Amino acid sequence: MNNEQEELEYLKSKIEELSKLYDGMEDTTIDDIYDIDDSIFEEYGLNIKQLEDDMTNYSSSLPLGYQKLQPDVKTPSYNYGGDSGFDLYSTEEITVPAFGRALVPTGLAFDIQDGYEIQVRSKSGLAINQGLMVLNSPGTVDSSYSAEVKVIIFNTNQTSFTITKGMKVAQAVLCPVVNGKWVELKEINEIPNKDRGSNGFGSTGI
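and the corresponding structure tokens:
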């Protein structure tokens, strides 16, 4: 087999490999795509631009590890691709007194990468329909925290409210943040004057 035939066989094998991995993109890099001649893609009916875009989207995904601390904890997931947050569910039945608060366990712990935090926020539907909200919204889960995430729920109703086991209580949003490793707190003699100056509450009108 001459060099030209060997190269063609290699390229064909690479195409077959990429075809099988097209959905999962496992152990494949964008460099693998660039190493293949466009004509070979056309011969096998593959769209190189689409493959490049899919690879870029796949390789740019951000992993967020989670651990279920109980076997019956619901698996966290985004309801829609465009959602900012995923739902958190109560693992217990808890009665929150009127105008009172309760600490609600979710049964989940997260492995948050450095440079990110999870913000625990109220669910709009829960707030408007049930009068329940996250008291310290958004609650902060630091990347250095590895224990169970619990939600402080406040009941705005005049009567008590019972949160049932498996009920949605909040949403979790993964957000980039500048943490203490990157901030140098420096005492200075005077804060420089800026456009807004001392204009504070209500200064921009209603």
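(Above: one complete record from the training split.) The chain has a mean pLDDT of 83.
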